[in-house]
Prior knowledge:
The protein is mainly alpha-helical. Helix content is 82%, strand content 0%. 24% of the residues are buried.
Amino acid sequence: MNSKLLSSYEKLQMPEALTLEHEALRAELVRWAREPGRIGKAAGRVARLCDAHFAREEDNVLRAFGMLHDIASDRARPDVTAVAKIVAQFGTQHDAMRGQHQAINAAIENLLQLGRNGQIPEIADLAAMLKEHERIEDDVVYPTVMEIARSVQAGMGI
């Protein structure tokens, strides 16, 4: 990706709520990954998978939400051409991101079972929150980004 396109895209602001949620989930996973035994190992696996996935989302997905207010109010951004090309690339990455969710969900399910079997409600609760986070991304975030890309492309006549 050329640096001019990237710098235009980096100017977009990710929604703080999504960023804060990623940070909170990362912190909890890191905390539990320090635990000894199977819980720590399982939490560490989820942490590694989620960290890489979250970083990819923050670089390639969540910044697209920075265009929502402009799209909703029919305002054009001066950098819309550069941004549109990058946002449109999400369409080609969408299946890979959903594939990552499958691996993450399997690791989360393992963590959930360990929490339930070990009667550690905090682990079970964390796993349930992670599952819900992934479900929201699949059901809301990713389709919204696809719609943002379509809207930007339509507005540009692409």
